[in-house]
Amino acid sequence: MTSTSVRRNKATGLVVLLAGLVITGVGYAAVTSTAEASVAMYSQTQIDQGKQLFQQGCATCHGLAAQGSSEGPSLIGVGAAAVNFQVATGRMPMAQPANQAPRKVPVYNDDQIAALAAYVASLGPGPAVPSDEDLNTTDANLAEGGVLFRTNCAQCHNFAGHGGALSNGKYAPSLMNATPRQMYEAMLTGPQNMPVFNDKTLPPAEKRAILKYINELQTAPSPGGLALGSLGPVTEGIFIWTAGLGALLAVAVWIGAKVR
Ligand code: HEC
Ligand code: HEC
Q1: How far lies 1's CA from each of 8, 51, 83, 103, in Å?
Q2: How far apart are the C-alpha atoms of 191 and 196, rounded to whole Å?
Q3: In 60-90, which positions are buried (b, 16+ CB within 10 angstroms) versus exposed (e)?
Q4: 62, 73 contact by CB (below 8 A)
Q5: How far apart, in whole angstroms, are the C-alpha atoms of residue 54 and residue 39?
Q6: pLDDT (tens digit, 9 = 90+) per residue, 136-156?
Q7: Are 106 and 88 in contact (CB under 8 A)?
Q8: Relative to the CA of 193, which ligand 2 atom is closest?
Q9: Distance in Å, CA 153 to ligand 2 centroid
Q10: Which of 86, 107, 197 has the most ligand 1 atoms within 8 A of CB, as the residue to mutate?
Q11: Which of 63, 91, 145, 161 has its CA 20 to 30 A from that of 220?
Q12: Ligand 2 pocket by C-beta < 6 Å: which residues?
C-alpha cells in the first residue's frame, strides 16, 4: 500500500463516519421531535402576523421577544398548544396581574389565535396544537376513561368534573365548558397548578379515553335526582343537615304541641 492510498482510506473512513453521524442525528430528530415539525404547519405570513399581535397585546407582560418579565413568564418553548389553550379559553390576554387567569370570552378570533400560536411555536420547540385525529374518540374506551379520570383528574376537578378549590385562593375550574381540544391541550401543557400529562405518563389513547369520559360527564343527565352541584359529601351533608334535620325538628315540635 502506498502512503496516498492509506491517506485516501483514512479520508473515506472519516466521510463514512461523518455520514453515519449525520444520518443518526437526523433520524433521531425526526423520531423524537414531532413538536418541531409543527412549526412547518404555519406560514411565514402567519408567524409575522402573530409577532405583530403579540407585540401589541402580550409583550407588556411577556416581553417584546416573549422572553418574560416580572409580569409574566417566558413563553419560549411553551409551544402552540399552550397559546391556543390560553387564548382560546380567554385566559390570555390577562386583564391585570391576578392570582389566576379566569376563563372568559376570547378576545382574538381563530385566525389571530393561530397566528399567535405560530409565532410562539417559531421561538422554540413545544407541544403542537392537537390535530382532529388526536381528538377522535370513536375507538376510545369510555370505562377506561372513567378510571383514568378518577385517578388523575378528580382530586382537583371533582369526580363529576365540576371543579374545586385548591390552596392559596386558587381553584381547579369546572370542566363543563371545555372543548375536547382544550382538554387535550390542558393535559399537554399543564396550565398553572395543573401537572403536565405528557405522552409517557398518559399516552394519546388514554388521553382520548379521558376526553370521551369528560364528554359523557358534560352531557349526562342526573338519574339520581337533584345533582346538588355534584359537589359531593359537603353539599349532600348540608342538604341533609338543613332539610332532613329541619323536618325532624318540625315533627318533634308538632308532637310536643299535640301532647300539651
Ligand atoms: C397582564 C399581563 C399579561 C398579559 C397582557 C398576557 N399575559 Fe400571558 N400570562 C401572564 C401570567 C401572569 C401568566 C402565568 C400565570 C397563569 O397562567 O395564570 C401567563 C401565562 C401565559 C401562558 C402559559 C405559559 C405556560 O407556561 O403554559 C401563555 C401561553 C400566555 N400567557 C400567552 C399570552 C398571550 C399569547 C398573550 C397575548 C394575547 C398574553 N399571554 C398576555 C400574564 C399576561
Ligand atoms: C393538581 C390539580 C389538577 C389536576 C390533578 C388536574 N388539573 Fe386540570 N386544571 C387545574 C387548574 C389549577 C386549572 C386552571 C389553570 C388556569 O386557570 O390557568 C386546570 C384547568 C383545566 C382545564 C381547563 C378548563 C377550562 O374550562 O378552561 C381542563 C380541560 C383540565 N384542567 C383538564 C384536566 C384533566 C383532563 C386532568 C386529568 C388528566 C386534570 N385537568 C388534572 C388543576 C388540576
Answers
A1: 11, 62, 63, 76
A2: 8
A3: ebbbeebeeeeebeebbebbbbbbbbbbbbe
A4: yes
A5: 17
A6: 999 999 999 999 999 999 999
A7: yes
A8: 12
A9: 7
A10: 86
A11: 91
A12: 89, 91, 100-101, 103, 152-153, 155-157, 166, 170, 172-173, 175, 177-178, 182-183, 186-187, 191-195, 197, 210
Lowest-confidence pick of 14-23, 158-167, 182-191, 218-227: 14-23
Q: What is the pLDDT of residues 92-105, one digit of tens each?
A: 999 887 889 999 99
Give the number of residues written for the chain: 260
Which cell is 200 given? 409517557
- Looking at residue 109, its amino acid is N
Of the pLDDT bands very low, low, confident and very high (cuts 50, 70, 90), residue 36 is very low
Q: How many CB atoms lie within 10 A of CB 235?
A: 14
